[in-house]
Amino acid sequence: MADVDEWRGASFKQEEDHSEATTSLLERINATTIPVLLRSTNKSLQDLVDELLTLEKIARLGGDALSTQRLAVEVIRVYRVQGDYAKMLLVLEMLMRKRGQTKMTQSAMIAECAVMISDASLPKESRREVLERVVHLTDSRIHVELEHARFAIDLAKLMESEGQKRAACDLLSGLHVETITNMPRAEKLDALNCLIRLCWSWRTMNTHRLCRAELTTVRWLVQNRGKPS
After folding, report:
1. Which among 41, 60, 78, 172 is most buried, taking Cβ atoms within 10 Å?
2. Domain boundaries, the chain
3. pLDDT tens digit string along 155-172?
């Protein structure tokens, strides 16, 4: 009698191990060694990055999630260290949408981008462009909802400082930070207070939204009363 648990005709891709090749390549090409390689070889930055991307594709399609993450993050880090934020964002979007890309790798790449956003030397215009792109890329991705909320809050505050209060209010209204379980209470309260402040600044135009924001804050405070932060 045939085993009822046997799946006839099913095809399962065996996970490949590219850890040794990844370690060897990353020892040679990384954000620290690239300036030296650019001076000592005839290769361009794109040539060096392409070597990382080639192995990243092999590891990703082979099911080697850890090697894929290491290579993808290093590509993002290379462009971040080089200060080429525009290329960094293009590569980030490309890698985020690749077939077979794991949530773990996506989260790690977003975390690497966050390092650039926290850089005080980043011009205000560039900071806004980076924030707008990562807010878009992390939207509706539950595994990076906390990062999405933090990016959106930073972007809303930047919009507010530029006088775009309505756009900032619209952005914060769609977050629903009270439902993000892994966000610290202090951050939630700060975001809700920011939303209320923005609503008050043009309350004659948006009384309904102001009431909803205030009720959301009160309801959340009551539900979390006595809980540790």
Report:
1. 172
2. 19-122, 124-223
3. 999 998 898 888 888 888
